[in-house]
Write a structure and sequence with these properties.
With about 300 residues, this protein is an alpha/beta fold. Helix content is about 40%, strand content about 25%. Strands 3, 4, 5, 6, 7, 10, 11 and 12 form an eight-stranded mixed β-sheet that branches. A hairpin with a 2-residue loop joins strand 1 and strand 2. Helix 1 crosses helix 2 and helix 1 crosses helix 4. InterPro entries: LysR_HTH_N, LysR_subst-bd, WH-like_DNA-bd_sf, WH_DNA-bd_sf. Belongs to the LysR transcriptional regulatory family.
């Protein structure tokens, strides 16, 4: 059976609830801020919609009819739900509440992400944060497909017609070595000293600019790295290095991955730096995106130690 959609104006419902609570036209009109005749008209119109009297009107005595008693809980519920909905809509519209979906590269859990989330949650505790770990290329696709709202990634594209990027951190590279490797005796490693070593790197597909930046460091040092193993996450890269399968070049923040069998050393030349950027859709009207960008601007991340 198809339910008929009620067409009950909110002022009439409000007037009905207030009169049901006061059971006095004068007091109800005062609460509503209107005169008694308009109140009486509102109630009459509502009764016409219902088809039955909602109040008994004996001289000096106003009471709810059975129909009125039946309607009262539903009317209160409707008004309460509307008030809650309006408040929620205003909170979301202003960027103080809602849901923000953030993609992040795993290595950024060692640098930008913790501080950013702490700052944002402190300022906007009502916002629901949906954090999704993914590498750079999937993040760019997810932004275009609108399955995330913000990306935190390494080496963003130089230009994108649909996406905006803001660099929030740069960091140098380090050599990642098995702790038993002879080069760990040095405080810094010249990149050309790695020429005869097998390499463990992230697949190029998950972040082409970063992969190319690392391989270019080798090319500039006079050799092409022999990549014998790939791993999607830097933690796995370090674990494979620990087993002796190869060496790697990685962003400096990877030092925070604590593995007993892995050593990190600065490299020479040490001028190359990798960029960490926040990414978003240029046409995104979600106020939470602007809130997060503002939080980054006010509290830029510290350089990794």
């Amino acid at each position: 059976m198809r339910m008929e959609r009620p067409e009950l104006p909110l002022p009439q419902l409000h007037a009905f609830v207030v009169l049901a609570e006061e059971l006095h036209f004068g007091r109800a009109a005062t609460r509503l801020g209107i005169a008694q005749p308009p109140l009486s008209q509102q109630i009459r119109r509502l009764e016409d919609k219902v088809g039955y009297a909602l109040f008994s009107r004996e001289p000096g005595n106003i009471g709810l009819t059975p129909a009125g008693r039946e309607l009262l809980p539903a009317a209160r519920h409707a008004l309460t739900d509307l008030a809650v909905g309006l408040t929620a809509a205003r909170e979301v519209g202003s960027g103080r509440a809602g849901r923000l979906r953030i993609g992040f590269a795993a290595s950024l859990a060692l640098t930008v992400l913790p501080g950013l989330l702490r700052t944002f949650r402190k300022r906007f505790p009502a916002v629901d944060l949906d954090i999704q770990e993914m590498t750079t290329t999937p993040q760019l696709a997810a932004l275009r497909e609108r399955t995330i709202d913000i990306g935190l990634l390494r080496e963003p594209p130089a230009h994108d017609a649909d996406l905006g990027f803001k660099t929030v951190l740069t960091e140098p590279f380090v050599a990642v070595l098995p702790s038993s490797h002879p080069l760990t005796a040095q405080r810094t490693v010249r990149v050309e000293q790695l020429a005869e070593c097998p390499f463990v790197l992230l697949p190029r597909a998950v972040g082409p600019p970063l992969y190319d930046q690392i391989t270019n460091l080798c090319t500039d040092a006079g050799f092409t790295p022999q990549v014998t193993q790939h791993a999607v996450e830097w933690q796995t890269v370090c674990a494979l290095v620990e087993t002796g399968l190869g060496v790697s070049l990685a962003p400096e923040s990877i030092r925070r991955i604590r593995l007993k069998g892995v050593a990190f050393r600065g490299i020479e030349p040490g001028t190359a730096r990798t960029r960490v950027a926040v990414a978003w859709r240029k046409n995104d009207a979600n106020p939470l995106v602007l809130r997060l960008l503002a939080a980054l601007k006010q509290d830029p991340p510290d350089r990794p130690q």
